[in-house]
Specification:
Length: 78
Protein backbone atom coordinates (compact mmCIF):
# COMPACT_ATOMS: atom_id res chain seq x y z
CA UNK A 1 0.00 0.00 0.00
CA UNK A 2 1.18 3.50 -0.80
CA UNK A 3 -0.02 6.62 0.94
CA UNK A 4 -0.21 9.55 -1.51
CA UNK A 5 -0.74 13.11 -0.25
CA UNK A 6 -1.65 16.12 -2.38
CA UNK A 7 -0.93 19.78 -1.59
CA UNK A 8 -1.72 23.16 -3.15
CA UNK A 9 -2.88 23.18 -6.77
CA UNK A 10 -2.51 19.39 -6.98
CA UNK A 11 -5.01 18.94 -4.13
CA UNK A 12 -7.37 21.39 -5.83
CA UNK A 13 -7.15 19.43 -9.09
CA UNK A 14 -7.61 16.00 -7.48
CA UNK A 15 -10.34 17.23 -5.10
CA UNK A 16 -8.78 15.10 -2.33
CA UNK A 17 -5.97 15.67 0.15
CA UNK A 18 -4.70 12.13 -0.12
CA UNK A 19 -5.43 8.50 -0.83
CA UNK A 20 -4.10 5.03 -0.13
CA UNK A 21 -3.29 2.99 -3.21
CA UNK A 22 -2.88 -0.79 -3.29
CA UNK A 23 0.33 -0.46 -5.29
CA UNK A 24 3.90 -1.36 -4.50
CA UNK A 25 7.06 -2.48 -6.26
CA UNK A 26 6.84 0.09 -9.01
CA UNK A 27 8.97 3.05 -9.92
CA UNK A 28 8.05 6.53 -8.82
CA UNK A 29 7.76 7.45 -12.51
CA UNK A 30 5.14 4.70 -13.03
CA UNK A 31 3.11 6.05 -10.11
CA UNK A 32 3.38 9.63 -11.38
CA UNK A 33 2.30 8.54 -14.87
CA UNK A 34 -0.73 6.78 -13.41
CA UNK A 35 -1.71 9.79 -11.24
CA UNK A 36 -1.20 12.27 -14.10
CA UNK A 37 -3.52 10.21 -16.28
CA UNK A 38 -6.11 9.66 -13.53
CA UNK A 39 -6.29 13.35 -12.51
CA UNK A 40 -4.99 15.14 -15.65
CA UNK A 41 -2.06 16.69 -13.79
CA UNK A 42 0.18 17.24 -16.81
CA UNK A 43 -0.47 20.99 -16.86
CA UNK A 44 0.65 21.43 -13.22
CA UNK A 45 4.13 22.02 -11.88
CA UNK A 46 4.97 20.17 -8.68
CA UNK A 47 7.77 18.49 -6.75
CA UNK A 48 7.66 14.98 -5.36
CA UNK A 49 8.79 13.83 -1.94
CA UNK A 50 8.94 10.24 -0.72
CA UNK A 51 9.03 9.76 3.03
CA UNK A 52 9.66 13.51 3.46
CA UNK A 53 12.69 13.65 1.11
CA UNK A 54 12.55 15.34 -2.28
CA UNK A 55 13.20 13.00 -5.20
CA UNK A 56 14.74 14.33 -8.41
CA UNK A 57 15.12 11.14 -10.47
CA UNK A 58 11.68 9.55 -10.68
CA UNK A 59 12.80 6.81 -13.06
CA UNK A 60 15.37 5.22 -10.79
CA UNK A 61 13.42 5.52 -7.52
CA UNK A 62 11.61 2.30 -6.65
CA UNK A 63 8.67 2.58 -4.28
CA UNK A 64 8.20 0.18 -1.40
CA UNK A 65 5.12 -0.80 0.53
CA UNK A 66 4.13 1.80 3.17
CA UNK A 67 5.99 4.66 1.44
CA UNK A 68 4.43 8.10 1.75
CA UNK A 69 4.50 10.05 -1.51
CA UNK A 70 3.70 13.78 -1.48
CA UNK A 71 2.99 15.95 -4.52
CA UNK A 72 4.02 19.45 -3.51
CA UNK A 73 3.44 22.88 -5.07
CA UNK A 74 6.45 24.89 -6.30
CA UNK A 75 8.45 26.48 -3.50
CA UNK A 76 9.12 30.21 -3.40
CA UNK A 77 12.44 31.38 -2.04
CA UNK A 78 12.72 34.19 0.43
Amino acid sequence: MLNVKYFGAVAEKTQVLGETLPLSNLSLQELVDELEQKYDLTSLSYSIAVNQKLVQDKNSYMLMSNDVVALLPPFAGG
